[in-house]
Write a structure and sequence with these properties.
single chain, alpha+beta, 41% strand
């Protein structure tokens, strides 16, 4: 699990499971008062780039179907 911070303030978290050449991104959340400002996109982009640099060939992102903003 990775914790996203701005300074000392926790703004979100994400769990990444890595097996073989596959990375799964789960449990991704940004604090409710901070949503809608591009922070989720910034965090997710960072996680995806990290996985690609580490050589993962396939990435999966779990999103609940009723989570329209995601």
């Amino acid at each position: 699990t990775k914790i996203a911070k701005q300074g000392e303030k926790i703004i979100g978290k994400v769990r990444i499971d890595k097996v073989g050449e596959i990375a799964g991104i789960y449990g991704f959340v940004v604090g409710s008062k901070l949503r809608g400002n591009g922070l989720g996109r910034e965090i997710l982009t960072s996680v995806v780039n990290e996985c690609l640099v580490e050589g993962y060939k396939k990435l999966f992102l779990e999103v609940k179907s009723e989570n329209w903003p995601a």
